[in-house]
Write a structure and sequence with these properties.
It is built from no helices and nine strands. By secondary structure, the chain is an all-beta fold.
């Protein structure tokens, strides 16, 4: 910008809502008992849709991706998706099973820190939604993967590995986890 006339910078006033912070984590024994985090929210199909990382209140600290939705962005429901067996029941909102044996309860870092993107440019409707996430359950070491879905719920369960544990800066934190910061951005190249 070469020149600006009659412009004034004003900071808005933030007002804390009575319902904030809202508690999304679940009851004792649930996949999201300990905490929920790394959420990604889109306003899509006339509602807010949230994909978030779960964490159990167990020694293993099992991570997975789960789904919630809201009409107002304040009150969230976790629909029973019936996709993943968790301690013998599919009555939950988890998105990814144990990648090696879907009949088992997912353990460890199954999927976490997901970034979801709705891609209306892809001619393949089965790939309408894209997700980049971290997992250490597919190939042993924590790696970054890409998967896709027609509806944001039913994801391709053979995701594509993008990168993983390797020596060098910006690849590994504490020797085990790929740098998660690149997951905070998704770029569309129309070419």
């Amino acid at each position: 910008v070469a020149d600006v006339d009659n412009a004034v910078q004003r900071l808005g006033v933030a007002n804390k809502h009575d319902a904030n912070p809202f508690k999304l984590h679940g009851p004792a024994g649930s996949a999201d008992e300990a905490w929920t985090g790394y959420s990604d929210v889109l306003f899509d199909q006339n509602r807010f849709r949230m994909w978030y990382t779960t964490n159990t209140n167990t020694f293993e600290r099992n991570w997975n991706m789960a789904y919630a939705e809201s009409t107002d962005g304040l009150t969230w429901t976790k629909p029973n998706l019936g996709l993943v067996s968790y301690h013998g029941s599919k009555a939950n909102n988890l998105l990814f099973p144990d990648f090696k044996d879907s009949s088992k309860t997912p353990m460890g870092a199954t999927a976490a820190a997901g970034l979801i993107f709705r891609d209306d440019h892809d001619p393949d409707r089965a790939r309408r939604y894209k997700m980049v996430f971290i997992s250490s359950n597919l190939e042993g070491d924590a790696s970054i993967y890409l998967t896709w879905s027609p509806d944001g719920i039913h994801w391709e369960l053979k995701p594509t590995r993008l990168w993983g544990k390797s020596a060098g800066p910006n690849q590994v934190i504490r020797g085990q986890t790929p740098w998660v910061e690149p997951l905070s951005s998704f770029f569309y190249d129309p070419l």
